[in-house]
Amino acid sequence: MIANPRQVRLIAEARIKTDVIDATVLARLYASGFLPEVWIPDEATLGLRRQVTRRTQIVRQRARLKTIVQSILHAHLVPPCPHADLFGPRGRAWLLAQPLPSDESEAVARHLREYDRLSEDLRVVERELARDALADPNVKRLMTIPGIDMVVAVGLIAAIGPIERFAGPDRLVAYLGLNPSVHQSGDGRPRHGRITKQGRTHARTMLVEAAWQAVAGLGPCAPSSSASLPAAGRTSRRWRSRASWR
User: Which of 139, 155, 144, 146 is closest to 55 using CA atoms?
Assistant: First the structure.
């Protein structure tokens, strides 16, 4: 059994703290039934989470390479690339034609080779994720929702695990940290604040990605201002700018 560290943090913040005292407190909480437990994923869920994590790491490494190349261009006052994808065919032709010092040109070429290697690794990982998606009816069901593609669906299944372990939708919302915070005392009126943002951050990030994809797919029906978007979408522009590097 694994205890939830967020709910037993008073042990870590105690003035008098020894291993014997901590073990005694945990034993008393467990004996009285007040020890908050953490769900331990099964082997299938753990394997899926590892694959999702690998894909996320590769995407971040590719984004880092693009940032490094952009910093080289900025350092030599090279104007912005006129093409949408700097690492695409036309973007690469423009990039290699820029007058850079020999050492910088070699560095750019080295980053391009590394980017290509990571792209191949990404294709391999996504093929494996697609194979798992085809074998899971829950992933197929999620993909029927506008904005949710294969990557988002597999990521959500990996984060959630068996849906049967949640007693109701409110428990799932709380597990993902999408429930609003509440402050209430006595007979006073409860005050609801922002979402708690507890749980798996990557799952919330993928939901934001799905929301942006759904909005983009509306075409002429898409909202014309950020005021029409959900709060989660309005507060995630920085993430959206990072996702555009993919």
Answer: 155
What is the C-alpha separation between 198 and 184, in angstroms, rounded? 19
* CA distances (Å), origin 234, targets 145, 160, 184, 240: 21, 24, 27, 10
Structure tokens at 246: 């993919």
Q: How far apart are CA 241 and CA 2, in angstroms?
A: 37
Per DSSP, 194 falls in state: E
From the CB of residue 211, how many other CB atoms can be counted at a distance below 10 Å? Answer: 19
**What pTM, to 2 d.p., does this model score?**
0.72
Q: Cα separation of 21 and 203, whole Å? A: 36
191, β-bridge pairs: 183
Q: pLDDT tens digits, residue range 70-91?
A: 999 999 999 999 999 999 999 9
Give tens-digit pLDDT for 24-51.
Answer: 777 776 677 666 677 788 898 999 999 9
